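Lecture 7 notes: from sequence to structure.

We start with a single chain of 138 residues. Read the sequence below before looking at the structure.
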Amino acid sequence: MDEHGGDPVENELHILLTEEDAEAERVAELTGCLREELLDLDVDDVTRLPGGEPPPGARAVDVTQIGALLVTLGSSATALNQVANVIRSWMGRRHDTRPSLRLQMGEDVLEVSEATDDQVAEALEIFVARHSPAGAEP
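Now the structure, written as tokens:
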């Protein structure tokens, strides 16, 4: 019996972006902007999770599907740290609305909403440290 069967893959980071009272189109736009920045990193892939584009004018759409990204980190030991830096920078530029982010890697979940830039930085640092290989530079 494979003891790893069913375990979430450790090099996959799920990101869920939400914004209170936001239109579906706005969440889709924010998610797209974050995805573009993440694609510039040394990661294998950044894909939007199924859910598709919301129908025009739809308000009852499942926003949790619109803002969902899957980052495949690959074998780079620094990939997660790079992703955290981009997320911190990206969140820092969103002072007008302050979207909420939920990061999940394996069973570990980090939720960031209405936090100061320093709080976001500290939370991301701890999250990265928990998933860094022993001896790797944070």
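Residues 1-8 have pLDDT under 50 and may be disordered. Keep this in mind for problem set 3.
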